[in-house]
Amino acid sequence: MGAGGPDEEDNRWPPWLKPLLKESFFVQCKLHADSHKSECNMYCLDCMNGALCSLCLAYHKDHRAIQIRRSSYHDVIRVSEIQKVLDISGVQTYIINSARVVFLNERPQPRPGKGVTNTCEVCERSLLDSFRFCSLGCKIVGTSKNFQKRKKQLTAMTSDSEDSYSSSSHGRSKSNNSKVQSFTPSTPPPTSVNYRNAKRRKGIPHRAPMGGLIIEY
């Protein structure tokens, strides 16, 4: 593949990370269903063959295995375990049951809380100011070239839209001013003299017969 292709993107991360994030944990182990320790909450980073129960680990001696834990129905990993094998910088950590953990995948959030000034770059979940992502899954997505490209395109579109709106508003303002000016009445032309209604010259007086009134024409 060429530069920036899928292979390059995948090589940025350990081969076990994406399969880990897609795995379903806390289900009953099919091999040890009769055991009370059959809950699958382990994962072998070397074999990458799905979720394991504690009894399955007997077949993975000397392998790198991590334990998945749960918080409010979401999967987490202790920072002390995951930071040995993965760079988790930029991912917000949480204190749960006296242990610092990170979440595997994003958690839906209807809306940011009041006064929130920083959110996850991918899912917009509320974060502390010093972090960029709420989970390992969001970091994978948010640091991919495709996501960064779309983000730049969206930013450019938003900027163009704002510029267009500003220009349109300015144009409408000029148009409105023109319209206002066009509605301003012009100076009325001087009134022409209506000679028919002008004051008539006095005519020659004529005396009415029989001593009547004098009428001017």
Helix proportion: 25-40%
Spatial gap, N to C terminus: 113 Å
Mean pLDDT: 79
How would you describe the shape? elongated
Number of beta strands: 9
Could you describe the largest sheet, including whether it forms a barrel? 4 strands, antiparallel
Q: From the alpha-carbon coordinates, what is the Rg to the nearest angstrom?
A: 42 Å
Order of helices and strands: HHEEEEEHEEHHEE
Strand content: 5-15%
Task: List the topology elements.
Elements: H1 6-11, H2 17-22, E1 42-44, E2 51-52, E3 65-67, E4 69-71, E5 74-78, H3 79-82, E6 94-96, E7 99-103, H4 136-142, H5 145-182, E8 206-207, E9 214-215
Antiparallel strand pairs: 1-2, 1-3, 4-5, 5-7, 6-7, 8-9
Describe it for me?
There is one protein chain. The protein is of the alpha+beta class and 217 residues long. The strands form three sheets. A four-stranded antiparallel sheet has the order 4-5-7-6. The chain has a three-stranded antiparallel sheet with strand order 2-1-3, with no helix packed on it. The chain has a two-stranded antiparallel ribbon with strand order 8-9. Strand 4 (69-71) and strand 5 form a beta hairpin. It has helices at 6-11, 17-22, 79-82, 136-142, 145-182, and strands at 42-44, 51-52, 65-67, 69-71, 74-78, 94-96, 99-103, 206-207, 214-215. The model is unreliable at 174-188 and 213-217 (pLDDT under 50). The chain is built from five helices and nine strands. Among the domains are: 13-67, no CATH class; 68-109 and 116-148, no CATH class. It is 28% helix and 13% strand. Residues 164-185 have a biased composition (Low complexity). Pfam families: PLATZ.
